[in-house]
Design brief:
- This protein is α+β, with helices and mostly antiparallel strands and 293 residues long.
- The chain is 48% helix and 21% strand.
- The chain is built from eleven helices and eight strands.
- Strands 1, 2, 3, 4, 5, 6, 7 and 8 form an eight-stranded mixed beta sheet that branches.
- β4 and β5 form a beta hairpin.
- α2 packs across α4, α2 crosses α5 and α3 runs antiparallel to α4.
- The two termini are 34 Å apart.
């Protein structure tokens, strides 16, 4: 099994993003994993068996799914199988304050479902209608053209087009398409709530009310999906938000702490060091030095 970093496809450090169309016919796509990126896959035509870990399931035209960093996967039994692969790093493409993170559909497609897929527990994908697929295909063609031609401002335009695509896909990832996967949507609704209120004092009772689960059920679901309790998940999310805000020198460390849900700066520093191995000030300094290289 081959581990693939994003630098195989692009060596740009300022815009770590790659899009291309791939085609497979009567051959297998080797089993591989991603070391530092996620992959959005839109099936453009044909059929194949998607192999994830020890299981496989058929995928066909119009289906959309996301492969997380660390997921081992590939394709077999391909017949006229054409796909669009978009390789990206979520922390670079999705702003920490973007309202897209508060969408249940976004959390289902880009966060929860990939975790289930990684654990061989969830095989449902977003399936686009004919009209939606036609619109998405036109958008993909435009994105690919921008990526290949690299006209002035192409990175900014491509970033905007990618976010547009993600929003459209999130809106189409509806509960009525996957009613038998209620866990995914209840958990996605809960994660969307956390994204909206992470700077506030979130209690387990709040999450229970949002999800419709009991405390025991919700805690079990978090552990099985994210290998963390709800409290641990919230803490990790707050630290991730802080990591995205700290490089901006216009915000003091105290302001970053407060905006990420930590009322006490000293406590924030202890938690940040426990999660990352360095203090907030050391992290800021290191990022500053790296930006000047």
């Amino acid at each position: 099994m081959i581990e693939m970093p994003l630098r195989i496809f692009t060596q740009s450090e300022t815009f770590p993003f790659y899009i291309h169309y791939g085609q497979h016919e009567d051959d297998d796509c080797f089993i591989h994993g991603h070391t530092d990126f996620s992959e959005l896959v839109i099936v453009l035509d044909g059929v194949a068996d998607h192999v994830v870990g020890a299981v496989s399931y058929p995928v066909t035209k119009g289906e959309v799914f996301v492969i997380n960093n660390g997921t081992v996967h590939g394709y077999r039994n391909a017949r006229n199988f054409k796909i669009c692969n978009i390789m990206f790093q979520p922390h670079n493409m999705f702003s920490p304050t973007s309202d897209i993170r508060q969408s249940m559909g976004f959390q289902a497609l880009f966060v929860v479902a990939p975790h289930y897929l990684q654990n061989n527990q969830f095989h449902s994908r977003l399936t686009l209608s004919l009209d939606d697929f036609a619109f998405v295909r036109r958008l993909l063609d435009e994105m690919l053209a921008e990526f290949q031609q690299k006209h002035e401002g192409w990175q900014t335009l491509l970033s905007v087009m990618f976010i547009q695509l993600c929003i459209l896909l999130s809106r189409h990832y509806r509960v009525d398409q996957n009613e038998h996967h209620s866990d995914v949507f209840k958990l996605s609704r809960t994660i969307a709530y956390i994204e909206k209120h992470y700077a506030e004092d979130i209690t387990l009772a709040d999450l229970v009310q949002t999800s419709g689960y009991s405390e025991r059920q919700l805690t079990r679901l978090f552990h099985s999906t994210f290998a963390a309790s709800p409290k641990q998940y919230i803490t990790k999310l707050r630290i991730q938000k802080a990591q995205q805000l700290l490089p901006d020198p216009s915000h003091s460390i105290g302001e970053v702490a407060w905006s990420c849900g930590f009322a006490d700066q000293n406590y924030f520093s202890r938690v940040f060091r426990s999660e990352t191995g360095e203090t907030p000030s050391a992290y800021r300094h290191r990022r500053k030095e790296k930006s000047h290289e």
